[in-house]
Structure formats: structure tokens, C-alpha cells
Design goal:
The chain is an alpha/beta fold. It has 14 helices and twelve strands. Helix content is about 40%, strand content about 15%.
């Protein structure tokens, strides 16, 4: 116990710069079992430590543990949690729960048998916390830590504090909102940099190695998270990697499942499963015409999950169309429902039809344009960068 307390003290005492995430203010911290899911390198560990700094700055009632520690190869979490609670502990933070076997069964035991203890844990986005999991279904409060929004990136780069807005607020009041922001800063001066290396927070350390670190995390997700959780034999890893590369070099595109299957030398059913795995791993987005995300059906369009992945995996596919549409899907899709539009690029929340492009877009009366390279819009024409202020 003392070892983990000392480790936590050292981590909290670090002077390394961090980015305080808005999700800290959005979670209901009164819940008894809270899950934070996120891609490798997105900042889950920092998020837990910032939670301690904010909620328990001078308390010994909270303890952070990284389950990479070999100590938990011989001791159950439920046993440790019970001892911690008996010593007066109130909140136990468990980082990387997927590293621990029988994690859902043990977490349920903690919830059932240690009523005064709150547990907050992080996991890979691939891990099925509640889906088809009777242990935690209806028990765990699941939250997703996405990469940095454009707003959060600007906040760190400039030191200024910017509000975030709901989707409807931007639709209804985009001119006034954009004027307020542009009066303080020129957002387009930062936009290209964000598209290249602003989504993941490790640009803070050294952006010269940003792509190397991102490729490392992509490969770890493919080599460890996806195969381990989905029980894929490692001999098939090369097929999964090849499929991701094909997607990255061709996105955005309408997939031909038979051609993809032939390209990676596997079956159509396996390609469909691989697309689902890559989506769950936060590596790609799948867009459907009916919006129901029925992964048994062929998606109408495939995108990479964020623009930084494009620069890392397929730097020759960084055309304006790809970057703009990927940015829009990534930022808008976090809290809104997107599907294919018959008359435009996207339909958002079954209500708003969007075309995404440059400054010369002419949306018409029943379509909204998300236009790049403009600071302030008018009417149905909204600056693309402003959709980076949704969280």
C-alpha cells in the first residue's frame, strides 16, 4: 500500500505541463463505478491524476494504481480494494483495467461487497465494458475521453480560455460566436497545425517526434489491444494492418467488401469483422445511410478517425476533401449522430444536411455548408473550424 501511495505522490508532484480536459466537468463523479475509455496516448493517465488534483488535493482517501504493476499478477483487485477501504480509502483509481484478468467479475465484486468505495478505471476503447457483459451492464458509468478538440488545442497554445458550444448553438448563432472568437485570435493560423499534430496531447513534449509516437500507439493498438480483446491470432495481424493502410490511402471512400477481401487475402465476413474492430479501436469511422450503425451491414463510407492519423499512416492522402470531412466527422460525431445524406455529405441528428468544403461552397436553402478558409460565416455558411468548439 505504501509503495503505491509513494508512486502517486511522485506522479502528482510532476511539474510536466498538462491539458485540463473538459470531460472532468462533465462526468457525474457521484457514480460508484466510472469507466474512462480512450485510445492509447490520448491522456487517460493524466486525466486520472488531474481528477485527484482537482477533487482530492490534500487527501489520503484516494489512490491511483497502474495495473501494469506485476503486484497484481498475484493479488486480486477485490482483495486490495477491501484492504484499502478498511484503511479509510474512499476512491480507488485503476489505470489500464484490460491488463488484469477477470476484470469485470472482480469489479462487480468490489461494487457488491465494498459499498463505501468508489472505483474509477480506464480501459482501451476496444474493451466491451457493458456490451454483452452481464457483470457490469447497468452498473458501470461509461465515458469516452476523445482526443483534443480544436478548442482545447487553441486553449493550450494561446493560454486563452474559450467556451464550448452545443451543436444547436453553433447552427443558430455561428456568426456572433465566430466574431467573438476572432476578436481574440485568428483561429485559421492554428488550424493546419491542429490537423497535423493537435489531436493527441503528446505534442506538448516534442512535436518533432509526434508522428513516431502516434505510429507507435497505432501499432500497439493493432498488435495488443485488438488481437487480445477480440481473440485474433497474431498470424492474422498483417491482414489487419494492410486493411488499415488501404483505408488510410483511399479514405474517404465507399468500400467494396469483395475487393478489400481480395486485397488482404481473407473472406468478406472477416473484412466486416475487421472494420468493426478498427472502428471500436478509434482508428476509423464508419458512415451508414440509415444511421443505425448495424455493423453486420456494409458501411456506405469509411473515414479515418481523425486527421492526425491521416498524416501518420497515409501522408500522401492529405488532400483538402479528406482532411475537411474527417475533421468534421471527428469533431461533430463525438456528441451527435451522423449518417449519409442524399443531397449532401452528412446528415446530422436526422435533421441538418451538410456539405463540407472550401470558401466557395454555395449551400442553398436546405443545406448547411461547413466551409474552410473563412473566419466568419453568414446564413447557412459556417466556418469549418468552429465545429472544433463542440467540446
Amino acid at each position: 500500500m505504501e509503495f503505491f501511495q509513494h508512486t502517486q505522490k511522485s506522479l502528482l508532484g510532476s511539474t510536466k505541463s498538462t491539458i485540463k480536459r473538459e470531460l472532468l466537468n462533465d462526468i457525474d463523479w457521484n457514480e460508484k463505478l466510472i469507466c474512462i475509455k480512450g485510445f492509447r496516448g490520448v491522456g487517460k493517465t493524466t486525466f486520472l491524476l488531474d481528477y485527484i488534483r482537482k477533487m482530492y488535493p490534500e487527501s489520503n482517501d484516494v489512490l491511483y494504481i497502474n495495473l501494469n504493476n506485476f503486484y497484481f499478477t498475484k493479488r486480486k483487485i477485490s482483495s486490495f480494494a477491501d484492504e484499502f477501504a478498511k484503511r479509510g480509502g474512499k476512491v480507488l483509481l485503476l489505470d489500464q483495467i484490460q491488463k488484469y484478468p477477470n476484470w469485470s467479475e472482480d469489479l462487480k465484486k468490489c461494487v457488491t461487497e465494498i459499498p463505501d468505495l468508489k472505483i474509477i478505471f480506464t480501459s482501451s476503447p476496444v474493451l466491451r465494458i457493458a456490451e454483452n457483459n452481464p457483470d457490469l451492464n447497468g452498473i458501470a458509468n461509461i465515458n469516452h475521453l476523445e482526443g483534443l478538440s480544436f478548442r482545447e488545442y487553441l486553449k493550450h497554445q494561446t493560454g486563452n480560455n474559450y467556451n464550448y458550444y452545443s451543436f444547436d448553438e453553433i447552427i443558430d448563432n455561428h456568426v456572433e460566436i465566430a466574431k467573438k472568437i476572432v476578436a481574440e485570435i485568428r483561429p485559421l493560423a492554428f488550424f493546419d497545425d491542429y490537423l497535423k499534430h493537435g489531436y493527441f496531447p503528446y505534442f506538448i513534449d516534442d512535436r518533432n517526434f509526434y508522428v513516431d509516437r502516434l505510429l507507435k500507439h497505432i501499432n500497439l493498438a493493432l498488435e495488443i489491444d485488438v488481437p487480445y480483446i477480440n481473440q485474433i491470432e497474431l498470424k492474422y495481424l498483417s491482414k489487419l494492418r494492410k486493411l488499415l493502410h488501404i483505408i488510410a490511402t483511399e479514405a474517404p471512400f465507399t468500400p467494396n467488401i469483395s475487393k478489400l477481401a481480395a486485397a488482404v487475402q481473407t473472406s468478406r465476413a472477416t473484412v466486416m469483422n475487421y472494420l468493426k474492430y478498427l472502428k471500436n479501436a478509434k482508428l476509423i469511422h464508419l458512415l451508414y445511410s440509415n444511421g443505425d450503425e448495424d455493423l453486420m451491414k456494409k458501411p456506405d463510407k469509411v473515414y479515418l478517425h481523425n486527421t492526425n492519423l491521416i498524416y501518420a499512416i497515409a501522408p500522401n492522402n492529405t488532400g483538402n476533401l479528406n482532411l475537411r470531412q474527417t475533421f468534421f466527422y471527428n469533431q461533430v460525431g463525438y456528441k451527435n449522430k451522423l449518417k449519409i445524406s442524399r443531397n449532401a455529405d452528412f446528415c446530422v441528428n436526422n435533421k441538418h444536411n451538410f456539405i463540407v468544403g472550401g470558401r466557395k461552397l454555395d449551400p442553398g436553402s436546405d443545406i448547411i455548408a461547413a466551409s474552410d478558409v473563412i473566419e466568419i460565416g453568414e446564413g447557412n455558411k459556417i466556418p469549418l473550424w468552429l465545429f472544433g468548439f463542440l467540446y
